[in-house]
Amino acid sequence: MTHSSAAADLPEAFFTEANSVEVVNAKIGADASPRLAEVMACLVGHLHAFAREINLSHEEWETGIRFLTRTGQICTDERQEFILLSDTLGLSMLVDAINNRRPEGATENTVLGPFFVAGAPVRKAGDRISLDGKGEGCLFVGRVVDLDGKPIEGARIDVWSDNADGYYDIQQPDLQPKWNNRGTFFTGPDGRYRFIGIKPVSYPIPDDGPVGNMLQALGRHPYRPAHMHYMVHADGFQKLVTHTFVGGDPYLASDTVFGVKRTLVAPFERLMDGQTPWRSEYDFVLARSGENR
Amino acid sequence: MTHSSAAADLPEAFFTEANSVEVVNAKIGADASPRLAEVMACLVGHLHAFAREINLSHEEWETGIRFLTRTGQICTDERQEFILLSDTLGLSMLVDAINNRRPEGATENTVLGPFFVAGAPVRKAGDRISLDGKGEGCLFVGRVVDLDGKPIEGARIDVWSDNADGYYDIQQPDLQPKWNNRGTFFTGPDGRYRFIGIKPVSYPIPDDGPVGNMLQALGRHPYRPAHMHYMVHADGFQKLVTHTFVGGDPYLASDTVFGVKRTLVAPFERLMDGQTPWRSEYDFVLARSGENR
User: Fold this and answer.
1) N or C: which end of chain B has fewer CB within 10 A?
2) Where are the domains of chain B?
3) How many A/B residue pairs have CB atoms within 8 Å?
4) Using the beta-carbon criterion (under 8 Å), do A283 and B219 form an inter-chain contact?
5) How confident is the model over A218-237, as pLDDT tens digits?
6) Closest by alpha carbon to B164, among B222, B121, B226?
7) Are the CB atoms for B250 and B225 separated by under 8 Å?
8) What is the DSSP string of A19-61?
9) Test mutation, A38, A84, A94, chain B, max B CBs within 10 A
10) Which of A16, A32, A33 sits opposite B97 (nearest CB)?
11) Considering the domain B101-286, what is its CATH architecture?
């Protein structure tokens, strides 16, 4: 062997299986942002621990590289496969939970999802948001209140759902009227909201790409239980991004993006009279800004 | 609140910040391959632990989604940015280490890198592989031996390096001769190899994409120390994929892909006579198949 003299003046800390995390993180420069340095050091630690714990083979590593590459390459302005990946691995819900630790009694957040569109038309209380004539009509009613139960006037409520075929309007721009099953409402002095939509239906997330392949390989279905999306803004209160879920939906216990919380399951009652066959009542309880667990 | 009756018959185990890993992994079906189930459960565990430990903000999560998307979208048949990411985070070297735990005394592996091309011309001992007339010539000599020091006859050695400008032939198909600085050699009965290349030069990995942005934000340079690539096959022995590094290179202690090992630093001696100004001698010690630590 002839290497010893050539390496004589080198540092001890070359990369090894045992010291890999320390060696990689030691390269972060003093001029890196402290938060970026902290995030990346933690990421490298877990990435290496994963490979080590699972004894990752070279072939498995290659499979991962190909999977991530395909996931990036299927993304378009209309499709975000990495968000789907984050959603289906529970990361999106975990980040949502970490960033929305509300006091007991406040309505819980859940994922925004990829189908929110800003700028939906402002409607009057009682207006219909379902414009395609499909589905079973449902009256949505309730109040926006603070943690003491006092009504919040002037709260802005954005609502959106799929249509009876399980698609949002932006997924079918040629088939659905613009702003179908979307609207913006404001609460009056009593904190009440009221609109007519449809009883939402469960639907699969887009499953014809890498994430769909992953779910299939894991023996998981791609369905989300039926839900109505809400985003509630009120001055002095934390923004609430949530859904109400249709009680009794067969996918409530197996939402493929893990968005269901017990407190977000709402009653949908069949009405025997009136114009709409269903009625769902749900009160949103907002926490004040800065009021966290 | 009106949700209690609607949720009355639901299971307890909805997703929470505390139980997120268990809830996600509980969804893996019984028909998933046991190894895939094990790998994904471990991945989800570390992914969630990372987000939790670092208190990942929604904005940081969005930054990550955008970064991964760009990384996938810059990939082409000629550019694999996810492998660069794996390399620069030390994952590639860790996977290499995990999968090549050789007995003490056997030559160590290092990363294959993205520039290997199968099918390089077979050359005779002593042939020149550098075809573009650039750079400082170097005579590479040594033996392929087993752990007892016995010569291995008929070992096949593939070699490749950058040219004097720091580019591999496949990076400059219009500027470099085909197979420039590449060749395939076979050892004789004495186990010896011998060829003339150039003294390789250090070079930056492609740094005009997301990985380059990441290195810059982390205060890291994109350089690899000068090295000659070797792949050695011999019947009955483990395949060896390695480099020899040019002793004295300024980037030896800071290879941006962490490929340097102390035992792979080779002497490059200046010759005062002969046709080539440099000479580098290195012996490759192969472990028999199945002979691992």
Assistant:
1) C
2) 3-56, 101-286
3) 276
4) no
5) 999 999 999 999 999 999 99
6) B226
7) yes
8) THHHHHHTTS-TTS-HHHHHHHHHHHHHHHHHHHHHT--HHHH
9) A94
10) A16
11) Sandwich (2.60)
Question: 3-state class of A3 per DSSP?
Answer: coil
Min distance B100 CA to chain A CA atoms (Å): 10
What integer pLDDT is reported at residue A173 of this predicted model? Answer: 93
Measured between beta carbons, which residues in chain B are less than 8 angstroms from residue A62? Answer: none
Give the pLDDT of residue B60: 98
| B79-136 confidence digits (pLDDT tens) | 899 999 999 999 999 999 999 999 999 999 999 988 999 999 999 999 999 999 999 9
Closest by CA to B85, choosing from B100, B68, B73, B97, is: B68
Residues B143, B190: contact at Cβ < 8 Å? yes
DSSP class of residue A187 equals -
Task: Collect all residues of chain B within an 8 Å Cβ-Cβ radius of residue A293.
Answer: none
The alpha carbon of B170 is separated from its chain's Cα centroid by a whole number of angstroms, namely: 17
Nearest-Cα residue of chain B relative to residue A46 = B46
Summarize pLDDT for B57-82 with one digit per residue, the tens. Answer: 999 999 999 999 999 999 998 889 99
CA-to-CA distance for B108 and B96, rounded, in angstroms?
A: 10
Burial letters A226-255, b for 16+ CB under 10 A, else e:
bbbbbbbbbeebbebbbbbbbbebebbebb
Find the distance separating the first CA and the last CA of chain B, reported in whole Å.
63
Cβ B54–A42 below 8 Å, yes or no? Answer: yes
Please judge whether A10 and B65 are an interchain contact, meaning their C-beta atoms are less than 8 angstroms apart: no
Concatenating the DSSP letter of every residue in B254-268 gives G-TT----GGGEE--
Residue pair A106/A286 in contact (Cβ under 8 Å)? The answer is: yes
For residues A285 and A264, give the distance between their C-alpha atoms in angstroms, rounded to a whole number: 12
Q: What is the DSSP letter of A131?
A: -
Distance in angstroms (rounded) separating the CA atoms of residues A186 and A156 = 5
* Chain centroid to CA B55: 32
How confident is the model at residue B4, as a pLDDT?
47
pLDDT of residue A268 exceeding 60, the answer is yes
DSSP-derived letter for residue A121 is P
Taking residues B22-43, report their average pLDDT: 97
Interface probe, candidates B31, B40, B81, B262, chain A, greatest A C-beta count within 10 A: B262
**A140-197 confidence digits (pLDDT tens):** 999 999 999 999 999 999 999 999 999 999 999 999 999 999 999 999 999 999 999 9
Looking at chain B, how many residues does it have? 293
Percent of chain A clearing pLDDT 90 (strictly above): 90
Integer CA distances (angstroms), B264 to A3, B135, B196, B242, in order: 7, 22, 19, 8
ipTM metric: 0.92
Residues of A in contact with B48 (CB under 8 A): 90-91, 94
In chain A, residues with a C-beta closer than 8 Å to the C-beta of B54 are 38-39, 42-43
What is the spatial distance between Cα A234 and Cα A155, in angstroms, rounded to a whole number?
5
- Closest by Cβ to A2, choosing from B31, B252, B266: B266
Distance from CA of B150 to the nearest CA of A (A): 13
